[in-house]
Amino acid sequence: MLAISLAYQAIQRGIKVRFITAADLMLQLATAKKQDRLEAYLKRSILSPKLLVIDEIGYLPFGRAEANLFFNVIAKSYEVGSVILSLGMDIYRQ
């Protein structure tokens, strides 16, 4: 809820925001990489917004390839804007 509220406030101030779940992000990154369009996808969808919100990270186990892609997203995003990471609430119920 906090990530959504912060994203909403940013939108109200005219800041471009991208909200995506970790599972959707990994799927889109893998697809872009297979199509040899990873850099274009990163520029258009990940680096374009000034605020990137990645939700439900705790739901998705990362393999080596996914972890590498995720690290690249975080490393490149943090250089051009802000990143909010949300683990997902079910992690706290265990």
CATH first level: Alpha Beta
Question: pLDDT average, as an integer?
Answer: 88
Order of helices and strands: HEHHEHE
Terminus-to-terminus distance: 19 Å
Strand order of the largest sheet: 1-2-3
So, the CATH homologous superfamily?
P-loop containing nucleotide triphosphate hydrolases
Q: Give Rg in angstroms.
A: 13 Å
Tally of strands: 3
What low-confidence regions span 5 or more consecutive residues with pLDDT below 50?
none
Proportion in β-strands: 5-15%
CATH domain fold name: Rossmann fold
Overall tally of structural domains: 1
* Helix content percent band: 40-55%
Q: Output the number of helix runs.
A: 4
Structural class: alpha/beta
Shape: globular
Structural overview:
The chain has helices at 2-12, 22-34, 38-46, 64-80, and strands at 17-21, 51-55, 82-85. It has 94 residues and is of the alpha/beta class. The chain has one domain: Rossmann fold (3-Layer(aba) Sandwich), CATH 3.40.50. The chain has a three-stranded parallel sheet, sandwiched between helices. Strand 2 (51-55), helix 4 (64-80) and strand 3 (82-85) form a beta-alpha-beta unit. Helix 2 runs antiparallel to helix 3. It is globular. It starts with a helix and ends in a 9-residue tail after the last strand.
